[in-house]
Amino acid sequence: MGKPILDEAAMLRLPCGCTTLSRIREQNAIYVDKTEMVSSLAKNCFRPVFLSRPRRFGKSLLVSVFESLFSKGLEDFKDLAIEKDAYWKNEKTYKVVRLDFSQYATVDVETFKSSLTRDIQGVLLGKKRQELTEAEKTLLPNDVIKDYADEAESGSLVLLIDEYDAPITHNLNKSEKLQKMIDFISSFFATIKSCERVFRFVFITGITRLAHVSLFSMFNNLLDIAVDDDYSCLLGITEDELHNYFDAYVRNAAAVLDMSREEVYARMKSSYNGFQFTINADETVYNPWSILSFLSNPKAGFANYWYSTSGGTPTLLVKYLQRIENLDLFNMLRYRDNSNEVEGTVVNSRSLLSKSEPDQIPVEMLLLQTGYFTLKKKSRSRARLVIPNDEIGESLINLSLDIQNLMPSETTQDQISLLCDLLDEGDMESVFNLFNTLLCECVSSNSKAFNDENTIRDIIYSQIPQEEINKAKEVINSHGYSDLELKTPKTKLVVEFKRIQESGGEESAIKDAISQMRTHHYGETTDKRKLIRVVMIICTAKRCLTAYRVMDSR
After folding, report:
1. Whole-number average pLDDT of the chain
2. What DSSP designation does 353 have?
């Protein structure tokens, strides 16, 4: 088999963790078949369905799957599990109205209404805008649906609404426009409810659960699968799916990165796995966007694909955290222990179903809904909030820096670009000074970051370029785990951070750290790279790194 090919062109047809990935036979491409789950939901449900997930988890592509299934039947599902289901072989096709509210999030309410009218009329009337009569052009989207429902056969229409909450969350700081958006969307959902006999299937996605939007109050028969254990893995890639369907691509990545197959799987797991969307889910899932991005270009390494493509910066979250009180709470919540648990933060099944005013969502719930936290079961009905993986841990740092406008200066960024050369030259003095400069520029004056050595390590880690340096933190061996490891093609640097409260205790902390590194054999592998092991001391009182010591270089 030739070199595996994985690109966006291969993501346009069939569900891969409900990001879609077609089988392109000529290119030996692959797919993950979740159509059995899609089939079960689509054929048995005759009431509105709601699903919330973070950005970049494939909600829109799942909508595409439903659109294809209901409008074209099994045409796009050859050789998949759903093709064996006799139900769909006999099922008729439907008119499908697909509305993406995120396309109109930044427009005024009147433009939003007219755009929806045009989109709906295009399907129901089969007319282009220029073909409509003057009377038809002036109709509201609610009127178009009512007029169709008066004449149409029962159960003849499918409605798919993607990102229902986007027009609301984009207008949080514009009170008058916000209320108009809420009023219109509520009236639109009320119309859908009043015309429910005409709909064969209604599917709605979003990120948040907003109060005073009649999606949740008007639809008393709404099926909310966001917290349904049966659909916990509908979006995302499970461990078995990764190994069963992507192994050829993982082998290719291992060859490109000069790593073993097992090492690549381990790094993918620590970087991109860990998401659990329901309390009693059987397993966690990988972020499909990050997996596909990494496997399509493994040369770029285990980069932060989610945040760099705006997956981690929905408008609602950014605007919400710009408030000082919310930012303080956010910074407190993102500190965690080595198990990645968010200290003291527990949610129950009732709170997961709760609705909030758009501008009064509890910070921890908003971070859960947007993908920064995930669930870890504590009991049948309660779960801890945890940070799912390294990519999200780094994204939390980047989000905090972006919100506070704390970024390395151009001069520092130029120095960072030379880090690979500094490591190969063994210039630890310059590396130490560069790390201190990063902390000076990326930690606010009122931050408590220096109270936690993991947070300091993470801030440094987040600013290290991925292109030339293979970076990893908490690297496990049979004796323990090292704080930070950086690899160039020639050199491996292992850093152990130790925190002291007041200056003066550096020498004792250095001795303890060196003993720990030696006892736990940090960095000692068959790797042919030059090994440099160094201790760096964090001083809480001085708010900087105050000392370093090279343990050995060989």
Report:
1. 87
2. T
Q: CA of 244: how far to CAs of 11, 30, 33, 431, in Å?
A: 18, 10, 11, 42
Helices within 261-337 (DSSP H only): 261-272, 288-296, 305-308, 315-321, 324-333
491 within 8 A of 424, measured Cβ to Cβ: yes
Q: Which of 215, 165, 224, 166 is nearest to 192 (CA)?
A: 215
Q: So what's the pLDDT on residue 31? A: 52
**Tokens describing residue 84:** 């064996």
Q: Give the mean pLDDT of 508-536.
A: 92
Tell me the three state secondary structure of residue 76: coil
Topology (CATH level 3) of domain 35-231? Rossmann fold (3.40.50)
Angle, helices 390-403 vs 453-463, to 10°: value is 80
CA distance 534 to 515: 12
The pLDDT tens digits of the residues spanning 267-308 come to: 999 999 999 999 999 999 999 999 999 999 998 889 999 998
- pTM: predicted TM-score of the whole model, two decimal places: 0.85
Residue 13 confidence (pLDDT) = 35
Place of tokens 């292109």: 467
The SS3 of residue 331 is helix
Query: 334 pLDDT band (50/70/90 cuts)?
Result: low
DSSP for 182-226, written as a single string: HHHHHHHHHHHHHTGGGEEEEEEEES--BTTSHHHHT-TT-EE-T
Q: What is the CA radius of gyration of the chain?
A: 26
How many CB atoms are closer than 10 A to CB 527? Answer: 11
The Cα 454–Cα 459 span in angstroms is: 9
> How would you write 55-66 as a 3-class SS string?
CCCCHHHHHHHH
pLDDT of 338 reads 47
Structure tokens at 39: 């089939």
Which residues have a Cβ under 8 Å from the Cβ of 92 and sit 6 or more positions away? none
Nearest to 538 by CA among 483, 501, 486, 493: 501
Unique residue bearing structure tokens 């596909």: 292
Hey, where are the domains in the chain? 35-231, 239-390, 408-553
